[in-house]
Amino acid sequence: MTAPPSLTQPIELVTDGSTTLGASTLASLPTRERTFEIVCASGDRYAAVWAGVPIVALLEHASVPPETTHLLVESDVGYRVCVPITRALEGLLAFARDGETLATLERFDTRFVGPEIGGPKAVKDVVRLETATLPPGVDPDSYEELWPEE
Ligand SMILES: Nc1nc2c(c(=O)[nH]1)N[C@H]1C(S)=C(S)[C@@H](COP(=O)(O)O)O[C@H]1N2
Ligand SMILES: [Mo]
């Protein structure tokens, strides 16, 4: 795949405790390339080949409580989504799109993408991942912060 990520800031991983993943740690993890489509609520869509570290590989760096139900994925400015953990585990923390690093294409260098991750949940500029155990009956959307848009 492409060169190892150059992160403007480390990724914070919050599970049982808190871990910080820097560029060298991320570069030591396996990478995958997958084609995912980004579909906006407006109907705009495009497919791209994304390359990055599988979320499952990232979470192996931490002790994830077995009762975890969701993953919160947050951007630098607090744009935050809440995704069922089984779905999140199929995703990537992407560093490249169509063979070019995000850092060269965009104003950010990380992005959350996956097969069942709709456009609005494909968070740009990911700086924080947190596992969550939502009690039954709690609306996962109440954990989200989709404003302000970047
Ligand atoms: N950090 C951040 N990520 C974000 C957004 C945002 O405002 N901030 N918008 C989301 C929405 S609503 C969509 S449709 C896609 C748009 O992705 P694109 O610019 O690659 O088309 O990014 C998503 N990820
Ligand atoms: Mo969107």
From TrEMBL:
Residue stretches making up the Oxidoreductase molybdopterin-binding domain: 16-132
Pfam family, one: Oxidored_molyb
TM ranges: none
Stored Gene3D superfamilies: Oxidoreductase, molybdopterin-binding domain
InterPro entries: OxRdtase_Mopterin-bd_dom, OxRdtase_Mopterin-bd_sf
Name recorded for this polypeptide: Oxidoreductase molybdopterin-binding domain-containing protein
Source organism of the structure: Natrarchaeobaculum sulfurireducens
